[in-house]
Amino acid sequence: MLPELLSTTAGLWFAVVASGIYHGVNPGMGWPLAVSAALMERRPYALPGALLALAFGHLVAMTVVLLPFALMTMLVDWQTEIRVGAGLIVVALGVWLLFNRRHPRFLARVPPSRLALWSFLVAVAHGAGLMLVPIYLGLCGVVETDAGHRAATALIARTAALSIGVAAVHTGAMITAGGALAFGVYRWLGLRFLSKSWFDLDVIWALSLVLVGAIGVFSAL
């Protein structure tokens, strides 16, 4: 049922939004840092400002990962191989994260004042952008990509625009979900909720990478 849904344009865009919501509610993507920044600064616009910084870093990370695959779409004859290879990379990253639970040390060295940089680095380090690759390549497969019907430059331009659109929609869903949680904690629940109700999604995150990668391989074949 799920692979069939992800073979349609609507289903793939739904997956883009759903993955954004999933990233947003994951505390590892930074919404608790936005709450902490707002509570420390005690300014009305501190929370939206922190969320905007997180969104910018996440958007850049998604775009940086997706754009190289936009260039690959001109290799129409190798489309299946590219999609299978991308899916296997995502699966491999998920398996690696299952066995390696340690977070990169350099993330702890980024000061709180640089939330955009932190958001970019954590999204790259945790494979958040790679999770979108099978979905994005599925969207490229849905649209016509016959090199005999359009020039390579036009094809690259179209798929590059699509990659930016996927990154933007995904980031919008991510920051909406994370922002709603951050606002609720900041306005009503406070830091005590964060210290007592922190939840670890590392295993679920790794398994979700494996699942998305496997679906990408299956749909490509």
Short note summarizing the structure:
It contains nine helices and no strands. The two termini are 16 Å apart.
Structure description:
With 221 residues, the chain is mostly helical. The chain has two domains: 1-62, no CATH class; 80-219, no CATH class. The protein is built from nine helices and no strands. α2 packs parallel to α8 and α4 (46-72) packs across α6 (115-125). The longest helix has 46 residues, at 152-197.
Give the tally of structural domains. Answer: 2
Structural class: mainly alpha
The radius of gyration computed from the alpha-carbon positions, rounded to a whole number of angstroms, is 18 Å
Specify the overall morphology. globular
Please bin the fraction of helical residues: over 70%
One letter per element, helices H and strands E, the order comes to HHHHHHHHH
Largest sheet: none
Per DSSP, the total helix count is 9
Give the tags.
single chain; 221 residues; mainly alpha; 2 domains; globular
